[in-house]
Amino acid sequence: MNIRLFKPSVGREELQSLEASFTAAWLGLGPRVSEFERKWSSYVGCRESVGVNSCTAALHLALSAYRFPKGKKVLVPELTFAATAMAVLYNGLEPVFVDIDEQTLCISLEDLDRKYDKDCAAVMAVHFAGHPAEMDRLVAWAKPRGVKVIEDSAHSAGGKYKGKTLGTWGDIGCYSFEEKKCMTTGDGGMISSDDADLLKPLRHSRWVGINKDTWERYEANQLNNRDANSWYYEISDIGYKYNMNDMMASIGLAQLEKLDGMNRRRESIIKQYTAGLKGCAKVREALPYHPEHSSYWAYMVRVPDREAFILHMKELGVATGVHYMPLTLHPLFMKYKGETPSAYAIWGELVTLPLFPDLTDEEVAYVLSCIQAYEAKSV
Ligand SMILES: Cc1ncc(COP(=O)(O)O)c(C=O)c1O
Q1: In this structure, are residues 244 and 53 in contact, taking their beta carbons and an 8 Å threshold?
Q2: Quick count: other Cβ atoms within 10 Å of Cβ 304?
Q3: What is the assigned CATH class of domain 261-378?
Q4: How far is the CA of 233 from the centre of ligand 1 (A)?
Q5: Known active-site residue 271
Q6: 159 C-alpha vs ligand 1 centroid, how far in Å?
Q7: What is the second-level CATH architecture of the domain 12-257?
Q8: Which of 268, 328, 360, 368 has the fewest beta carbons under 10 Å from its own?
Q9: What would the pLDDT profile of 282-338 be if each residue is shown by its tens digit?
């Protein structure tokens, strides 16, 4: 056996959808991106979405929408992918690292309150591995303080918390369609919000600051080819080359049709893992999984002797991963280090196991048998 950690589930449907872009010979920012943005908004239940080329770009632009003065602070969980905190630095803001809740591994609301001061302008809420942060309590905490909530939903496309789609609880939601995530466009991301006016300037920011994209100019030219001004555009602000393109959107449109099915398959795999780990002494589930509600990008366990376990699984052909090192262990973020004892205590035991829709029941059973073998030799 040789079992991968993650694998995108792509096939005929994505190829067929891509073919439409090839036939139209329009591969860049164009009508397929608009279609995907509309369908994504309707899927998650929000007013407006802007397609970009990664969730990293989405987080950068989402924070930039508020034009916070340089030096303002943003609350970020200690345990997350670097992009969550990188977006803060891109905007000339200061990250304040907040400890994690020991149960959910998401941002601790108690530590959030401790770390907050009047200079904190926003909080980045990450649904760790797809497990929902307590968004009702978080939003209720943030609103009266005027703290904006950016939801980093990179791990949880299609997931829900208390019946409401993740990414729509906060002021702005950001999603990742990178190849390992719940659904993919190869690389890609989406910014979603109910505040359409807030997102409007971001359409220019993602396209080098230009106030009309090439498709708009092309369409204007087609509709009225006597309008010599269809070439005209203006730039009033700094922009980035962050746009999603029609090839990504074509893949995304096909993946969106499959997203619920892929999440239900992940649910079934997680339930098999949960049942198989009952009674294990050394290998325990890292999260109180509720896969019937949320969408989990990763399945994680806690193992005290992590390195021995990783080696054992590797020798038996099972890939594992570690998500994540606390960010303030990285040289870039060290100077922002505060008190985050739970993140530092827990991360050393975290191991990610294979989880992707095409993982077969036989492969799941094999992974579990490898864990049982580890239990037998290490207990
Ligand atoms: C929590 C989190 N936020 C943001 C990102 C960035 O996503 P992307 O790779 O689409 O830029 C990731 C990527 O893994 C992530 O895990």
Answers
A1: yes
A2: 13
A3: alpha beta
A4: 32
A5: no
A6: 16
A7: 3-Layer(aba) Sandwich (3.40)
A8: 360
A9: 999 999 999 998 899 999 999 999 999 999 999 999 999 999 999 999 999 999 999
